[in-house]
Amino acid sequence: MASEEVTVTVRLIRSFEHRNFRPVVYHGVSVEQTVREFIEFLKQDIPLRPSLPPPFRNYKYDKLKIIHQAHKSKTNELVLGLEDDDRLLLKEESTLKAAGIASETEIAFFCEEDYRNYKTNPILSW
């Protein structure tokens, strides 16, 4: 049995305060891989993408969170919703499928420390 492959959009969040992010679409992502394996793949792939400006290619991303799943409601947050961390933050030991990743899911990839600081004090700079 072949593993299921999906298309996901990964939103690279460089700055929460400045709403600085770039979407990158990945086709053929296996949902049987673990979240940790997908993070390692992203860390290797992002620096090699010439379409991304250097600040995005060289940033210290380390956490994934589901932003939106196909045919479900979206949040009003422009960058990333601050609610439901227990349900939407992906646990590294689970598979993408077990974490709820399906085709057309949009995922945020960001620095967890920046996210915690922004969640504590959600002020936008502009």
Provide structural commentary:
With 126 residues, this protein is an alpha+beta fold. It has helices spanning 35-45, 54-57, 85-88, 112-120; strands at 5-15, 20-30, 63-68, 105-110. Strands 2-1-4-3 form a 4-stranded mixed sheet. Strand 1 (5-15) and strand 2 form a beta hairpin.
Structural topology:
Layout: E1 5-15, E2 20-30, H1 35-45, H2 54-57, E3 63-68, H3 85-88, E4 105-110, H4 112-120
Structural class: alpha+beta
Question: What percent of residues adopt helix (DSSP H or I)?
Answer: 10-25%
Distance between the first and last residues' Cα: 50 Å
Q: Assess the beta-strand content as a share of residues.
A: 25-35%
Give a quick rundown of the structure:
The chain has 126 residues and is of the alpha+beta class.
Features:
about 130 residues; alpha+beta; 4-stranded mixed β-sheet; 4 strands; about 20% helix; about 25% strand; globular
